[in-house]
Write a structure and sequence with these properties.
7 strands, 5-stranded mixed beta sheet, 528 residues, single chain, 52% helix, 15 helices, two-stranded antiparallel sheet
């Protein structure tokens, strides 16, 4: 009995020991479970944080790529806008001549004539211009037209009446002159000296071309802008292949004519410097396959041209015009910033048409910003009002009108800055603000023509003076070198000054090649 009880006690102790062990193990497992749960929660948080960071990195990368591509797209859009602006250039919004109008655009021929309600053509009461009948002493040739039969019945028995119908005709023919000059030899009985009549320098060769031939060559080259080879062909054709000048001879004539004008150019420059109002401009040309420039200074009566390889202050100073002008002189130009150099003392006038072209270009580039349109209208309207007053011999606006124009001008500049600021497309933002800054900085020069009617409103005189060089470039392509361009500029100064004072070009050139050119004093007093 005792033995059985002992066995039960032993078993109980073992079970208790096992229970304690299992309880201990259970506590350990519970701790592990708790730790694993905690670790699981931590991993979940880490995973969530990782997902958040990963998404942030993805978003950031996408944003960076998007920003980068937006910059690329914006740059491309800006370049497209810039190229479109170049494509859209024409004579209305830039200095591009009408001859360079792109094929895709219609040519716009400048026309400053005021529109009226009058019909096209001759007006009522306007006298018809026609050639007048010759006086009897003017007739050099008579052609008699004879009829042999009556147009009505065919009879040959017709009589000539005393009355006739007179029709005059004026024509010309080229008369070839083969002139021989004879210089007699002489002897002096007193001293025994033998000599001949004085031979002028222009007859030093056995045979040479006369002054009319020489003048025609120089006129064709510098006034008609005919290439040397075509001048040669023209002279040959006019004289039935008798006068065959060489291209080299025409080149020598250019050099000779230019040298003969050295004193004329000195006097012309002096006269230009004396002017109270002066126009100047420059344009590109080609000499020896390189871009060069032809420059003009002048008035309605004077024309001074110079040629240079560069458009810079050094070449301007070489001309000796701007640096010698008085502080009372007014200089009209197309917004050439070199003119505002502190070394120069004259007053600047800015061309209204050039400013309007800049405004039209900016209007197109900014998709019709209203300030550009309104300022164009203001300038055009004011110029029209000025022209109406000038027709009635009124030489100035009244004070209230001037104040009104100045206020509108200032208000439109403020509007311009506001529109530029609000515009989300910033492709031409820099250019627009630059133009607005110019309108502020150079306001006085832009509006001088409004305040003083004696001053011009445009630089059209300079543009007309330089336009022929564009024809010269289209016909001849280029000058052989800058020296040839300088010869042309010198000769053009003489020819154009003569033309502006109603002197026949051929006669002027003929006198030049006979070493007796018109002096500047003769030219300016020609019609007085």
């Amino acid at each position: 009995m005792i033995k059985e009880t002992d066995n039960i006690y032993i078993k109980y102790n073992k079970l208790e020991a096992n229970y304690k062990e299992l309880t201990k193990i259970n506590c350990s497992l519970n701790m592990q479970i708790k730790n694993l749960k905690a670790e699981n929660e931590s991993l979940k948080k880490q995973i969530k944080n990782f997902e958040i960071k990963t998404q942030e990195l993805i978003d950031k990368s996408i944003n960076l790529v998007e920003v980068k591509f937006n910059k690329i797209i914006a740059a491309k859009d800006k370049e497209i806008a810039r190229l479109n602006a170049i494509i859209n250039n024409d004579s209305t919004n830039s200095g591009l001549p009408t001859s360079m109008t792109p094929l895709s655009k219609n040519k716009r021929i400048p026309n400053t004539r005021q529109k009226t309600d009058k019909k096209i053509g001759g007006q009522l009461g306007h006298l018809k211009y026609k050639l007048k009948k010759f006086n009897d002493d003017e007739v050099t040739e008579i052609q008699e037209h004879i009829e042999k039969v009556c147009p009505n019945c065919g009879s040959k028995d017709i009589k000539v009446l005393e009355t006739s119908i007179i029709k005059d005709e004026i024509d010309y023919e080229v008369k070839l002159i083969s002139r021989r000059h004879k210089f007699n030899n002489y002897s002096c009985p007193k001293c025994g000296e033998t000599f001949h009549a004085l031979i002028p320098e222009n007859l030093k060769e056995e045979n040479q071309y006369g002054s009319n031939v020489q003048a025609l060559c120089v006129t064709l080259t510098n006034e008609i802008y005919t290439p040397f080879n075509k001048s040669k062909k023209l002279l040959s054709g006019m004289t039935n292949n008798t006068i065959e000048v060489s291209e080299g001879y025409i080149v020598k004539l250019q050099l000779r004519a230019s040298k003969l004008l050295s004193e004329f150019i000195i006097n012309l420059r002096k006269e230009i410097i004396k002017q109270n109002i002066l126009y100047w401009d420059e344009t590109n040309m080609i000499a020896d396959k390189k871009r060069s420039c032809l420059r003009f200074y002048g008035t309605e009566k004077l024309a001074f041209f110079t040629a240079h390889t560069n458009k810079n202050k050094d070449s301007i100073d070489l001309d000796g015009v701007l640096s010698n002008l008085k502080n009372t002189t007014f200089m009209m130009h197309d917004h050439v910033l070199l003119n505002y150099n502190k070394e120069y003392s004259y007053n600047n006038i800015e061309c209204m048409i050039h400013l309007i072209r800049r405004l039209i270009k900016m209007k197109e580039n900014t998709n019709n910003h209203s300030w550009c349109i309104k300022l164009i209208n203001l300038l055009s309207k004011t110029n029209d009002e000025r022209n109406k007053l000038l027709l009635n011999n009124i030489l100035s606006f009244d004070k209230l009108y001037l104040e009104k124009v100045n206020k509108e001008y200032d208000d439109l500049i403020l509007l311009g800055f506001e529109e530029s600021k609000q515009d989300k497309y910033k492709y031409f933002d820099k250019e627009e603000n630059h133009l607005l800054d110019d309108l502020i900085k150079y306001k006085n020069s832009y509006l001088l023509w409004i305040e003083n009617f004696a001053l011009p409103s445009t630089n059209n005189l300079s543009e007309r003076s330089l336009r022929p060089i564009k024809s010269k470039m289209k016909i001849s392509g280029q000058f052989k070198n800058i020296d040839y361009a300088e010869y042309h500029a010198t000769i053009r100064s003489y020819i154009e000054t003569c033309k502006r004072n109603n002197i026949n070009v051929h006669i002027a050139v003929k006198r030049l090649l006979e070493k007796n050119p018109y002096t500047l004093e003769e030219i300016l007093t020609y019609n007085v």
